Amino acid sequence: MAIEQSLVLIKPDGVIKQLTGDIISKLSETGLKIIGSKVIQVTSELAEEHYQHLREEKFFDELISYIKGEYHTKSVLALVYQGEDSCRKIRKITGETNPERADPTSIRGKYGRITSAGVFENVVHASENTKEAEREIKLWFRPDELLYTLFPTELKEVKLEKLFWKGE
Length: 168
Ligand code: UDP
Ligand code: MG
Known about the structure:
The chain is α+β, with helices and mostly antiparallel strands. It contains 7 helices and 6 strands, in the order βααβααβααβββα. A 4-stranded antiparallel beta sheet has the order 2-3-1-6, sandwiched between helices. Strands 4-5 form a two-stranded antiparallel sheet. It is globular, with a radius of gyration of 17 Å. The chain starts with a strand and ends in a 28-residue tail after the last helix. Uridine-5'-diphosphate binds next to loops.
Protein backbone atom coordinates (compact mmCIF):
# COMPACT_ATOMS: atom_id res chain seq x y z
CA MET A 1 0.00 0.00 0.00
CA ALA A 2 1.26 3.45 -0.93
CA ILE A 3 2.48 6.08 1.51
CA GLU A 4 0.03 8.97 1.38
CA GLN A 5 -0.42 12.32 3.03
CA SER A 6 -3.66 13.68 4.39
CA LEU A 7 -4.72 17.12 5.63
CA VAL A 8 -6.70 17.18 8.86
CA LEU A 9 -8.28 20.36 10.19
CA ILE A 10 -9.68 20.67 13.67
CA LYS A 11 -12.42 23.14 12.82
CA PRO A 12 -13.37 26.09 15.09
CA ASP A 13 -16.18 24.09 16.78
CA GLY A 14 -13.66 21.35 17.62
CA VAL A 15 -11.23 23.94 18.98
CA ILE A 16 -13.77 25.76 21.16
CA LYS A 17 -15.21 22.48 22.48
CA GLN A 18 -11.64 21.61 23.57
CA LEU A 19 -11.61 18.45 21.49
CA THR A 20 -8.10 18.91 20.10
CA GLY A 21 -6.42 16.42 22.43
CA ASP A 22 -9.19 13.88 22.08
CA ILE A 23 -9.13 14.07 18.27
CA ILE A 24 -5.34 13.75 18.07
CA SER A 25 -5.45 10.78 20.48
CA LYS A 26 -8.14 9.08 18.41
CA LEU A 27 -6.16 9.66 15.20
CA SER A 28 -3.01 8.26 16.81
CA GLU A 29 -4.72 4.84 16.73
CA THR A 30 -3.89 4.81 13.01
CA GLY A 31 -0.14 4.81 13.73
CA LEU A 32 0.26 7.58 11.15
CA LYS A 33 2.92 10.25 11.60
CA ILE A 34 2.29 13.99 11.95
CA ILE A 35 4.65 15.83 9.59
CA GLY A 36 3.22 19.36 9.94
CA SER A 37 1.01 21.33 12.28
CA LYS A 38 0.00 24.92 12.90
CA VAL A 39 -2.77 27.08 14.32
CA ILE A 40 -4.34 29.38 11.78
CA GLN A 41 -6.86 32.18 11.67
CA VAL A 42 -8.56 31.35 8.37
CA THR A 43 -8.98 34.16 5.83
CA SER A 44 -11.90 34.39 3.38
CA GLU A 45 -9.50 33.63 0.51
CA LEU A 46 -8.19 30.43 2.13
CA ALA A 47 -11.71 29.32 3.13
CA GLU A 48 -13.17 29.89 -0.33
CA GLU A 49 -10.28 28.16 -2.06
CA HIS A 50 -10.41 25.19 0.30
CA TYR A 51 -14.15 24.70 -0.27
CA GLN A 52 -14.19 25.77 -3.96
CA HIS A 53 -15.94 22.51 -4.94
CA LEU A 54 -18.97 23.60 -2.89
CA ARG A 55 -19.22 27.14 -4.30
CA GLU A 56 -22.64 26.49 -5.86
CA GLU A 57 -24.20 25.03 -2.69
CA LYS A 58 -26.81 27.07 -0.84
CA PHE A 59 -24.94 26.58 2.43
CA PHE A 60 -21.65 27.91 1.00
CA ASP A 61 -21.67 31.33 2.74
CA GLU A 62 -22.55 29.71 6.07
CA LEU A 63 -19.78 27.15 5.55
CA ILE A 64 -17.23 29.92 4.92
CA SER A 65 -18.32 31.76 8.08
CA TYR A 66 -18.10 28.48 9.99
CA ILE A 67 -14.54 27.60 8.92
CA LYS A 68 -13.42 31.21 9.52
CA GLY A 69 -14.59 30.79 13.11
CA GLU A 70 -17.35 33.37 13.11
CA TYR A 71 -19.62 31.10 15.16
CA HIS A 72 -17.04 29.68 17.54
CA THR A 73 -13.45 30.94 17.74
CA LYS A 74 -11.15 32.28 15.05
CA SER A 75 -8.78 29.38 15.14
CA VAL A 76 -8.23 26.15 13.22
CA LEU A 77 -5.54 23.55 13.92
CA ALA A 78 -4.13 22.21 10.66
CA LEU A 79 -2.25 18.91 10.67
CA VAL A 80 -0.59 16.86 7.95
CA TYR A 81 -0.53 13.11 8.50
CA GLN A 82 1.60 10.68 6.56
CA GLY A 83 1.57 6.92 6.22
CA GLU A 84 0.11 3.95 4.40
CA ASP A 85 -3.43 4.48 3.16
CA SER A 86 -3.74 7.58 5.34
CA CYS A 87 -6.80 9.17 3.71
CA ARG A 88 -8.97 6.08 4.11
CA LYS A 89 -7.76 5.34 7.65
CA ILE A 90 -8.39 8.91 8.84
CA ARG A 91 -11.79 9.25 7.13
CA LYS A 92 -12.89 6.02 8.80
CA ILE A 93 -12.16 7.49 12.23
CA THR A 94 -13.62 10.93 11.42
CA GLY A 95 -16.86 9.41 10.09
CA GLU A 96 -19.43 10.49 7.51
CA THR A 97 -19.92 14.15 6.55
CA ASN A 98 -23.41 14.30 8.04
CA PRO A 99 -22.90 13.92 11.81
CA GLU A 100 -26.36 12.37 12.20
CA ARG A 101 -25.45 9.62 9.78
CA ALA A 102 -21.91 9.16 11.04
CA ASP A 103 -21.06 6.09 13.10
CA PRO A 104 -21.75 7.20 16.70
CA THR A 105 -18.27 6.10 17.75
CA SER A 106 -16.59 8.23 15.05
CA ILE A 107 -15.36 11.77 15.81
CA ARG A 108 -18.14 13.39 13.81
CA GLY A 109 -20.76 10.98 15.17
CA LYS A 110 -19.70 11.75 18.71
CA TYR A 111 -19.25 15.50 18.56
CA GLY A 112 -20.88 16.90 15.40
CA ARG A 113 -24.22 18.65 15.04
CA ILE A 114 -26.41 20.14 12.32
CA THR A 115 -27.23 23.83 12.73
CA SER A 116 -30.69 25.29 12.12
CA ALA A 117 -29.19 26.86 8.94
CA GLY A 118 -28.42 23.31 7.77
CA VAL A 119 -24.63 23.40 8.08
CA PHE A 120 -22.94 20.26 9.30
CA GLU A 121 -20.71 21.40 12.15
CA ASN A 122 -18.70 18.23 12.10
CA VAL A 123 -15.62 19.20 14.10
CA VAL A 124 -12.96 17.96 11.67
CA HIS A 125 -11.93 18.05 8.04
CA ALA A 126 -10.01 15.17 6.46
CA SER A 127 -8.78 14.90 2.86
CA GLU A 128 -10.93 12.62 0.71
CA ASN A 129 -8.11 11.19 -1.43
CA THR A 130 -4.45 11.76 -2.33
CA LYS A 131 -5.22 14.18 -5.14
CA GLU A 132 -7.33 16.36 -2.84
CA ALA A 133 -4.72 15.98 -0.11
CA GLU A 134 -2.00 17.40 -2.37
CA ARG A 135 -4.18 20.35 -3.38
CA GLU A 136 -5.15 21.05 0.23
CA ILE A 137 -1.68 20.65 1.76
CA LYS A 138 -0.25 23.08 -0.82
CA LEU A 139 -2.99 25.52 0.10
CA TRP A 140 -2.54 25.35 3.87
CA PHE A 141 1.25 24.86 4.21
CA ARG A 142 4.41 26.34 2.71
CA PRO A 143 7.09 23.80 1.75
CA ASP A 144 9.35 24.76 4.69
CA GLU A 145 6.55 24.23 7.22
CA LEU A 146 6.59 20.47 6.68
CA LEU A 147 9.08 17.88 7.89
CA TYR A 148 9.65 16.69 4.32
CA THR A 149 9.54 18.32 0.90
CA LEU A 150 6.50 16.40 -0.25
CA PHE A 151 6.00 17.95 -3.69
CA PRO A 152 8.29 19.59 -6.27
CA THR A 153 9.42 23.05 -5.26
CA GLU A 154 11.05 26.01 -6.98
CA LEU A 155 13.18 28.83 -5.65
CA LYS A 156 11.88 32.33 -6.23
CA GLU A 157 13.61 35.56 -5.38
CA VAL A 158 11.46 37.78 -3.20
CA LYS A 159 11.94 41.00 -1.29
CA LEU A 160 11.51 39.81 2.24
CA GLU A 161 10.11 41.67 5.22
CA LYS A 162 10.15 39.56 8.35
CA LEU A 163 8.62 40.17 11.74
CA PHE A 164 11.00 40.08 14.75
CA TRP A 165 10.35 40.35 18.47
CA LYS A 166 11.13 43.93 19.49
CA GLY A 167 14.77 44.23 20.62
CA GLU A 168 15.65 40.82 19.14
N1 UDP B 1 -21.36 20.45 4.42
C1 UDP B 1 -22.60 20.85 4.89
N2 UDP B 1 -23.74 20.35 4.30
C2 UDP B 1 -23.68 19.42 3.30
C3 UDP B 1 -22.42 19.01 2.83
C4 UDP B 1 -21.29 19.55 3.41
O1 UDP B 1 -22.67 21.67 5.81
O2 UDP B 1 -24.74 18.98 2.82
C5 UDP B 1 -20.14 21.02 5.03
C6 UDP B 1 -19.57 20.12 6.13
O3 UDP B 1 -19.03 20.93 7.16
C7 UDP B 1 -18.50 19.38 5.37
C8 UDP B 1 -17.97 20.45 4.42
O4 UDP B 1 -19.12 21.17 4.04
O5 UDP B 1 -17.51 18.84 6.22
C9 UDP B 1 -17.28 19.92 3.19
O6 UDP B 1 -18.14 19.08 2.47
P1 UDP B 1 -17.64 17.73 1.80
O7 UDP B 1 -18.73 17.24 0.92
O8 UDP B 1 -16.30 17.93 1.18
O9 UDP B 1 -17.55 16.73 3.06
P2 UDP B 1 -16.29 16.16 3.88
O10 UDP B 1 -15.20 15.86 2.88
O11 UDP B 1 -15.89 17.22 4.87
O12 UDP B 1 -16.80 14.93 4.56
MG1 MG C 1 -14.42 17.00 1.36
